[in-house]
Design brief:
Layout: E1 3-11, E2 44-48, H1 56-60, E3 63-65, E4 85-89, E5 93-97, E6 103-107, E7 113-117, E8 148-156, E9 161-164, H2 171-178, E10 196-201, E11 207-212, H3 227-235, E12 239-245, H4 254-268, E13 277-282, H5 289-299, E14 306-308, H6 317-330, E15 357-360, E16 366-369, H7 371-378, H8 385-398, H9 400-406, E17 414-417, E18 420-423
Parallel strand pairs: 1-3, 2-4, 9-11, 9-12, 12-13, 13-14, 16-17
Antiparallel strand pairs: 1-8, 2-7, 5-6, 5-8, 10-11, 15-16, 17-18
The structure holds guanosine-5'-triphosphate and magnesium ion.
Guanosine-5'-triphosphate (GTP) binds near residues 190 and 283.
Length: about 425
């Protein structure tokens, strides 16, 4: 199995901050609270785009940060929610949490979406903290931080293009110079025993997957050489690139090679001849290749484009890759084979954040940490007394005061949370 893989960091947008504001109207001497809520931060969503077939885009961009929500405004106006950041992925993409190895999403069908990280909720404005006892609160919340995650994106590769041809014509060499694949290359037959896959990126940023395949010889369709095993792979590809040794280094006639290979393909499955083909006239750097090519083209009656290349000197590669990409764009997709089909499970909600934990620093200070308490802290706007009081109430509500006391905290002891210090007050 061949897997394309990328490690990516995603951070959803933070919620916008809530606002503390009061009405100021001409004839209302004591205007009530009028601070609006912050908007929600942007989610990061992955969406299947059938037009993609590799994870090439993740090679260029490994960090994704979504926009934050707008802050709350006066006159009780809600800040705008940030629009989700949508990232296109090819069908067959699996998204895994790198830290827990949990599968977050299996994306298979066109348009299917999965929320990879949720944006933070907008903080509430002071309008929302009105109570009969406190009709004009000076409390507003900061936005909730957006979730962040390290993820691994994986894609089982299916070759779009198969390289076929006699042994030693240069199939593996070609794959090695147009992709990062490192197939074994040697001047003896059947160097390649199992297909190698490479991801190809054309200079105009289109990408596709190409396989070099074990060499084919006469009788392959009946099982000679690596026969059937090899031909099964060809059946799954959408374009066949027929590699021919135009230098005739083993004294075979190039056109004869071409016909023999096609005959084997046809005998294995007549449909294979209907598959679009491109001829790669390889080894054009060698003496005699030019003459052979002229003779080859004279004999060629089939309507198949011929591209002159040298995998060794890397000549002509750009043109043939463009031709392959154009052809792939022009023909319909074959639905990728997906082993465990119909699995529509998309996103499992995350477990509750651990509320808090307490340790002690060497100097005796109590240190509070944990996702939930840290989130509360970040959502508190410490510029108002009301918000500070509310934060202490929340800590008490979570049982942090009791826990501190249990561990021996006394009036005046230092308590740390993130990079801040407080005094423990009874
Ligand atoms: N002169 C020249 N030699 C080449 C070129 N491409 C490949 N070769 C040589 O041809 C020999 C066979 O190359 P491979 O890439 O292993 O051939 P293959 O088609 O993958 O062969 P199998 O895996 O055995 O089917 C090697 O010695 C290569 O260096 C080329 O463009 N010019
Ligand atoms: Mg090979």
């Amino acid at each position: 199995m061949f897997v394309d893989q990328a490690s990516v960091y995603v951070k959803a947008g933070d919620g916008g901050n809530g606002l503390v504001a009061y009405r100021r109207e001409k004839y209302v001497p004591l205007g009530g609270p009028a601070g609006g809520d912050g908007g929600d931060g942007a989610d990061i969503i992955f969406e299947v785009d059938e037009g993609l077939n590799t994870l090439m885009d993740f090679r260029y961009n490994r960090h994704f940060k979504a926009k934050r929500g707008e802050n709350g405004m006066s006159k009780s106006q809600h800040g705008k929610n940030a629009a989700p950041l949508i990232i296109s992925v090819p069908p067959g993409t699996t998204v895994i949490d790198e830290d827990t190895e949990e599968v977050i999403a299996d994306l298979t069908s066109q348009g299917q979406q999965a929320v990879i990280v949720k944006g933070g909720r907008g903080g509430r404005g002071n309008t929302r903290f009105v109570t009969p006892r406190n009709p004009a609160p000076d409390v507003a919340e900061n936005g909730e931080p957006g979730k962040e995650r390290n993820i691994r994106v994986e894609l089982k590769l299916i070759a779009d293009v198969g390289l076929v041809g006699f042994p030693s014509v240069g199939k593996s060499t070609l794959l090695s110079v147009v992709s990062a694949a490192k197939p074994k290359i040697a001047d003896y037959h059947f160097t390649t025993l199992a297909p190698n896959l490479g991801v190809i990126d054309t200079s105009d940023h289109r990408s596709f997957v190409m396989a070099d395949l074990p060499g084919l010889i006469e009788g392959a369709s009946e099982g000679v050489g690596l026969g059937h095993q090899f031909l099964r792979h060809v059946e799954r590809t959408r374009v066949i690139v027929h590699v021919i040794d135009m230098a005739s280094m083993e004294a075979r006639d190039p056109y004869d090679d071409f016909q023999k290979i096609n005959k084997e393909l046809e005998e294995f499955d007549p449909m294979l001849l209907k598959r679009p083909q491109i001829i790669a006239a390889n080894k054009m750097d060698m003496p005699g290749a030019e003459e052979n090519l002229v003779a080859f083209k004279e004999k060629l009656t089939e309507d198949i484009p011929v591209y002159e290349i040298s995998a060794l000197t890397r000549e002509g590669l750009r043109d043939i890759l463009f031709a392959i990409a154009d052809l792939l764009d022009a023909i319909p997709k074959i639905a990728p084979e997906i082993e465990d089909t119909d699995e529509e499970v998309v996103y499992r909600y995350q477990k509750e954040d651990a509320p808090f934990d307490i340790t002690r620093d060497p100097d005796g200070a109590f240190v509070i940490y944990g996702a939930k308490v840290e989130k509360l802290f970040k959502m508190t706007n410490f510029s108002s007394d009301g918000a500070i009081r509310r934060f202490s109430r929340q800590l008490r509500g979570m049982g942090i005061d009791d826990e501190l006391r249990k561990r021996g905290a006394k009036d005046g002891d230092t308590v740390r949370l993130l990079e801040y210090e407080f005094e423990f007050v009874e």
